[in-house]
Structure formats: structure tokens, C-alpha cells
Amino acid sequence: MYINFWYAAELSKRLEDKPIRVRMLSHDFVLFRDSKGNAHCLSDTCVHRGASLSGGKVKGDCMQCPYHGWRFQGDGKCVKIPSLGPGHKVPPRARVDAYPTQEKYGIVFVFLGDLEEAKRPSIMDIPEWDQEGWRGEAMDYYWEANYERAVENGLDPAHNEYVHPTHGYSGENEDTSYKVGELKIEHTDMGFGFMLTFQSPPLKNPLMRMIRNFDGDLEAGSGHHGPNHMWTKIHLTDTKWFHQYVFETPIDEFHLRTFLVSMRNMILGKWADKTVNGRNFVVAEQDRVVIEKLRPVITPQSRTKELLMPADKVISLYRDKLDEWNREGWRIDAEAVNRTRAKGDMVFAIPGPARREHKGWVLDPVPLIPGSDAEESKVRAVS
Ligand code: FES
Ligand SMILES: [Fe+2]
Prior knowledge:
- The chain has helices at 147-155, 160-163, 206-209, 273-291, 313-327, 334-343, 372-382; strands at 5-11, 20-24, 27-33, 39-43, 57-59, 62-64, 71-73, 78-80, 98-99, 101-104, 107-112, 135-143, 184-188, 191-200, 216-225, 229-235, 241-252, 255-264, 348-349, 364-365.
- The protein has seven helices and 20 strands.
């Protein structure tokens, strides 16, 4: 799990006048809307004596702690400590981490990290979102799985034949010359993508059958953007396309919440939403039963502990990309977090951007695995 990326925190439609507690990257956050309807995200742990802010109330533009009523603005600053009486001065350390938010595609996104704005990686773009001739909406679901395993599954060009019998079948046909074709990979600054030709049977669902009722080539492909955003494009025919955008949010290393924005350029009536979304859930369920049982639960750190084949090239490329972010020193030291949590006498916070301006924070920042620069200095110190 990494700091310094955008994470989908909640469906916009679910965040109304009540605060919501959300767990991401193994930490708790509170989401709330201010009087103008703008979404805010704060570290959920009150710096007074540790109450969960999400159990409190929204008062004007502030989140009020349920325990002793301290009020925190959307920027994390405490502006009221009732026990001090009228006209009191709030000490500067009375501040919780606050995180930048953006609402797009029907989702509240939160930047979980301390990078200044100009250096922040972007949210994956959905160009079809407001294009005429396209329709889609965001939905979410939960898995008991590691989010990197889920991204790798989304990128994997060799699992369709076995996990999704409706997509491909020739791998299971003993008499075909099935082989995963050559992947034409295009790299971006945040990842890569590829398209591939699959052999696919006619679709079974009557509605889908109206779109594709032939046996033959189907163009499809996937890509990723950062550690946790990925896309899949399925071109059922030359002109009938599904483009699916997936924002994976690790609840912790072992649990995952997926936000799926499923776009289509056909059957644009609202009446078809239920069928299409139902279909998406069927496909996700086919993946879930396999991915939840992968062992080890977390992708092994050594690539010699799996036997990768040429079709797994994209898995290696994704891990290479993760290594880049490891070198930045953005990977959370989950082991250290879990050790501390087991003791139960300390809580960390994901550092927000204000940590670059203010000193004297009450909560320690989450431990990170040192990046390569730090590693080098350690090596230098030893030698
Ligand atoms: S714990 Fe939040 S106000 Fe006391
Ligand atoms: Fe799949």
C-alpha cells in the first residue's frame, strides 16, 4: 500500500449531511460535506483523546468530535475547544491531518499523502464520462483480497479463458491452437496498457446477444494508472464497446473495496442499466472466488516464488512500476503498523500536505519503507 496517490473513498451519492467513516490504507478517515456541499476528508482520530470524529456531527463547516465537542475545519485546524470557555485561544497543535479531495465520475476521491499539489500523481482519466453517445455510472463492491492481486488480475490476459467462460473459451478447447497473442504494450508515465484479440463465443444473455451473436474475434485489453487505478476495454464488435474503469481502494493489505465505473456506447437507455450492471457483478464474482483464495494473500516480494510465463509479462511490468514507487519511499511499512497496532497503545496518521508547513503534530506519521535514497545512505553509513 502506498501513500501519495488518489484513492476512491465513497460514492458521491452516499455522502450527504451525515459524516461517514472510511477505512483506507489500514487507517480510519472521516468524510463530511460543509455548508456549501464541498466534500472534506480528515484523519478520523481526534487529537484530544482519540475519539472517532465520524461519530460526531457536522456543525457549519466543521466536524465536531462526539467526545468533548472540539470542532475541526475541513483543513484539519481545530477552531473550538469548548472546555476552555468563551474567547479561548486554540493551541496550534490542535490539528488533524486533512486530505485534498476531488469529486468526479460520481466518486469522492481523496489524496492520501503529503505531496504538494504540483507533484501529485493524477486520477485516472475517464474521457467517455461526459461524451455524447456514452453512458455509465459508478458502483462499488468489497473483496477479501489484496488490492495489488486484484489489479494484477485485471491486467492478466490469460485468465479470461478459464475464469470468464462468457468471454473466451478456446483455451479450454483441446483441439484449438490457443495461445495468448503478442501484447502490444504502450507505456504512460503512470503505467501501461495493451489491446489483444481474443476468440469469443456469441453472448448468452438475450440483451447482449442483440449486440454480439457471432463466434470470433473480440478486441479487449487492460492497463493501469498508478498502483490502484486500472481500465479494461472490451470491444464486442467494431463499434459496440464497453470501457470499464476500476479504482481499487485497499481497506488494508487483506481487504479491498472496488469502485467500478462501467461505460458503454450502446443500449444507452436507463432501462438497460440493471442488466449491464448485473452482468458486471457476475463477472466480478467470477474473479472474486479465485482472487480471494490466492496464496500468499499479498503478492510475493520475490519473483522466484512464482513461475511466470510470457503471458505474465504485464504482471512483471506492473511490479516494476510498483518498484519505482518503492524507490520513492511511498510504500507503507505494513508490518511495522501491524506490530504497533497489536500493542494497542499508539495510532498513526497518514501524513497530509499540511505536514510540510506545520510542525508539532500530535500523531506520528505512518511508518514507510525507506526509498532507494535512504537505502543508499544506510549502505554508505555501514561501509
Ligand atoms: S476526544 Fe475529541 S474532543 Fe475529546
Ligand atoms: Fe477477470
